[in-house]
Structure prediction request, 698 residues.
Amino acid sequence: MSSRDTILQRLRNRTGGELTAPECDFSVLKRPDWSTTERIALFEKMIESVHGEVHHCTEDSWVDRLAEILGTRGARNLLIPKEHEIGVKLRSATLGREDLPHLLIYDEPIESWQSVLFNDVDASITSTRGGIAETGSLILWPNSDEPRLMSLVAPIHIAVLFASELYTTFHEAMQVQNWKAGMPTNALLISGPSKTADIEQTLAYGVHGPKELIVLIIE
Amino acid sequence: MSDTARHSPHHVDVKEFHPRAHEALHNPQIRQNFRKAMDGLMTKRKSAFEGWDLETLRDLGANVRMRALANLPDLLEQLEQKLTENSIKVHWAVDGDEACRIVRDICKARDAKTVIKGKSMVSEEMELNHYLKEQGIEALESDLGEYIVQLAEETPSHIIMPAIHKNTGEISKLLHEKTGTDLSNDVEYLTAAARLQLREKFMNADVGVSGVNFAVAETGTLCLVENEGNGRMTTTVPKCHIAVTGIEKVVPNLEDVSALLALLTRSATGQHITTYFNMISGPRKAEELDGPEEVHVVLVDNGRSSIYQDDELLDTLRCIRCGACMNHCPVYTRVGGHTYGTTYPGPIGKILMPHLIGLDEGRHLPSASSLCGACGEVCPVKIPIPDLLVRLRQESVDGDKLHPAKVRGHGAKRNAVEAMIWKGWSWMHAHPGAYRFGTNLAARFRMLQPGKMGSWTQFRTSPKLAPKTLHEQLKERGQ
Ligand code: SF4
Prediction:
């Protein structure tokens, strides 16, 4: 008999007899119906408590803010999505101005440029599929336009979050967005920059992923 | 490959709990390292749950886990079907050896020479690194704590913070000796050095091996909880990703994950959430530019299906491996994780390991507890750990009438003299004449009572029999 069948058979022929499944009441996870302003305030507090940085912007101001942020950090380049409006807007913005760093597009399979991505990219910008106020988390569903490593490899990750897409809890986000209907190959919650406390409980940032996580909230 | 050959050179004898405990108790460094860490973790956990209806949340956690276990075989089949639909390949292993062979075969088929590993306690159970090394495949840990422990040629001493037993100075020295970094107490510098060393390895590894925190049957999704990003690297950069998981990690719905995640990270390190919560539901699609080409899942039984047979022991399988029970355990805090000599240390280890290694080998585990109840009180899924410890103690002296012994190696602690004494004791209590005669006799000859009574009198004075029996005293009082 295969190991699969052996295991399943042992579980099915349980000597203790049949088990009954208890009811699960998820209402303890529910939070009051907060306004967008309240959610933004909580999100900001939570993500800042784990070393994330938040900038409040509008549709018109975020590119300027981004330029400032990258300027102060001396970023030489910025990895952007090709199709997403974030990338489109940045590409047209660079035509007329000098203060944005060189733009890179992730449009080839990783195999062909892995070492450049790992060693030479200073910052990246991605969209989000919303955020979670209670834990200060960003929801990312990477795709071919914004591959998985975009939010992981560069020392600075900038994420654009629309305030209107802020949910209060993880539970609410997955219900409202109906995740169970189909998940992407990879989905993520990101809450702050990469960190470790493995050396005597001392926090250190950027151990494998970004050292900085910067959120542009578009209100 | 035989079992003995599998044991790594650093394998410790589980049975030697007491000498190791003595050694640890006399090591101020170990005691200080653990004490400091555990105190901090307890405080953080407490404040992370402020404002929550913790009891109701724990009830939900327990129910969610129990609901999953109640339908375990069906859920595993559903999970397998969904994973397969998502182009993830599913393998089943009855024990650690078989799981190791499965991983090896996948590596061999890809001609893989190097494996990069995310944190996975199941892989520790399997002693995977050691096995792969023997097969000529290098396996490198990428979680910083695991990396440190691997460089030190040790095993993790905590399931969440593997290198908690070491302080900065010790780690600095270790990294200096093994990797050539400068001696420094600057944690930022040490971390940055490890980042550089491991980046190279991520880029070049042929296969990534990870654990799984929750496997969702409804969508065929593997969830991974981590802070460092090494788990994301491990499951994204190499062309092939192998996830190994215990069969009990499956939950029916995505919704369940939201409840368990809320409990897990707060209980473990007092974080509201970890930096990354990674949900994997398939390999790279044709149009995608990164991610592994192949994803495999190895569903490992390794003793879990036997725990599943018994209504009481079954609760052990609810565990979500948060480590809160060890953080709050007065014994763990004082002796440290290595003393137990088992893959899982502390309270969870004491109730889980006897099933994995048998009570003959793990006979000291259920007794290495003060039964203070702290572990049961903090467990986010309400596992009655103290009750299970008592149950296993009974099993280790051959079970009782209510629960016929079920755990492998039961009766290993049975002592013929002790058993005879208890037998006589119960016979005497059932026969009033013999009882009176016996107690009278004991009171008369109380001078002959030994002053030392083994470990009982190590830190206590020996109890003395009264010159008169209770019956005599009552009689004198005319009652
Ligand atoms: S037994 Fe409970 S407290 Fe201990 S690791 Fe498991 S879930 Fe956490």
